[in-house]
Amino acid sequence: MTHPRYSISTDWLSGCGGCEVAIVDLDIEGKLAKFLNDYDLVRCPVLMDTKEYPKANLGIITGAIRSKHDRESAKAMRESCDKLIAFGTCAAYGGISGAGYVHSKEEILNAVFQGKENIPKGIPEMEQSPKPADEEVKIDLYLPGCPPHPAYIFDALNNLLKEQPSTSRPMPVCSTCRRIMKKTEVSVLKKYLDGTDDGKTCLLSQGYLCLGSLTMDRCKAPCPQRGIPCIGCGGPTLQIILEPNRDLRTELAERMSRLTNMEKEKIVHEIEASAKTHYAYTMSSQMINRKQTFNIKKWIQQ
User: Fold this and answer.
1) pLDDT for 1
2) What is the DSSP string of the chain?
3) What sign does the dihedral 21-89-16-218 (CA atoms) show?
């Protein structure tokens, strides 16, 4: 019995290219052969020299919209594809390109090229601020992650194209981390390289600012399980997105203060002082920057 083949078109906007590599990494799960057997890749700029936008069953957008070229490409993908995935945190929430949210286009260009007169001719015109794909086009499915784990990639493809029920759940990174949360006597916030991780206890309990409890699990928790605090690259949990008064800094401080002997206000202040790091992947998303509790432009001036 022959199985139907599905055509997939991809476009790489303003991002690092890691999401494209993630598709190749499907072989880690032994699924690359199945991928090639079930799907035809009709457009993929990182692999093939093509300027056209052929019709496809599914479009995959990676990277944020940072330039006029990105905006036009996203619209071309929407028109040529039956269904569209915002693939990776940059496409879903603005990602690393979204850090430009706190600076104007002019500030960035002047800092990079040391003067307007040094800007090369012919480069794509920058948008005033980076933004996720859904601020320009309709998205059918969001697959955050930096990049998404191969298991979640296959789940998304099967769900959209083969209409199979999704097995993914909106759980935080903590749900796949084996560390144990417990009350400790820790009273000092630690930087990543401070002290020695015991390998078993929750990093929050040990005094490290780990965002695992507030970040959507699309990675299977490789960082915290190896002693590296989660930096939120998978994007926020639904609790943070949907509740207008819930914010990363206050939620994290509340949880950390219950697990340690640190005051909530002290933790909030530390998060605000390094807000560019803790909000690096989501600050350009309207789901975050339109919250009344979000004021990063003030925090970074303190």
Assistant:
1) 44
2) -PPPPEEEEEEE-BS-SHHHHHHHGGGGGT-HHHHHHHEEEEE-TTTS-------EEEEEEESBEEEHHHHHHHHHHHHHEEEEEEESHHHHH-GGGGGGGGS-HHHHHHHHHTSGGGSPTTPPPEEEEEE-GGGTS--SEEE-SSS--HHHHHHHHHHHHS-PPP-----BGGGG---B-------S-B-TTSS---SSB-TTTTTB---GGGBB-SS-STTGGGT-----TT-B-HHHHH-TT--HHHHHHHHHHHHSS--HHHHHHHHHHTHHHHTTTTTTSHHHHTSTT--HHHHTT-
3) negative
The pLDDT value given to residue 158: 84
pLDDT of residue 31: 63
The pTM score is 0.91
The values of phi and psi at residue 300, to 5°, are: -75, -10
Task: Report, as ranges of residue numbers, the positions in the chain whose pLDDT lies below 70.
Answer: 1-3, 27-36, 302
Of residues 105, 48, 43, the one with CA closest to residue 80: 43
